[in-house]
Amino acid sequence: MCIEQLDERLRGQRLQEIAVRILAEHHEVGQPVHYKQWYGLLRSAGYSVGGKEPLASFLSTVSRSSRVRAVGQRSGLYVLVSDSTVEPDSASDGSRAHQDSPLAA
Questions:
Q1: 49: Cβ–Cβ under 8 A, 6 or more apart, which residues?
Q2: Spans of all domains in the chain
Q3: Neighbour-count burial for 17-38, b at 16+ CB within 10 Å, e otherwise
């Protein structure tokens, strides 16, 4: 058994997948949600996020998902996008920049 299986905190692709699924369960496509509220939904569902700063880890990970997009600049708001607008392979390549991340320079 590897160490990742012992640690139940979400990270990386698994965090992204679960966070998007939870957002889709609570919000319609195009309905804005603040990332702190979204994080709260994830925590209320019983999940925890790995990293020294879990909220920052959550934000930097979900902001790279091709299933969501930021609303405006530095608003903290995100919307779920429909599957038909998702570009293939864009979720895992890390190419999406995010201006709202507390980790951004």
A1: 9, 10, 11, 15, 39, 42, 55, 57, 58
A2: 10-85
A3: ebbbebbeeebeeeeebebeeb
Q: What is the pLDDT of residues 37-56, one digit of tens each?
A: 999 999 999 999 999 999 99
In order of 13, 42, 73, the CA distances from 53 in angstroms are 17, 15, 22
d(CA 34, CA 13): 21
Q: How far apart are the first and last CA of the chain?
A: 37
Q: What is the pTM of this model?
A: 0.73
Give CA–CA dist 35/63, Å, rounded. Answer: 9
CA 94 vs CA 12, 36, 48, 66: distances in Å? 11, 22, 22, 10
| Strand (E) or helix (H) holding 16 | helix 12-26
Which run of H or of E encompasses 59? helix 54-62
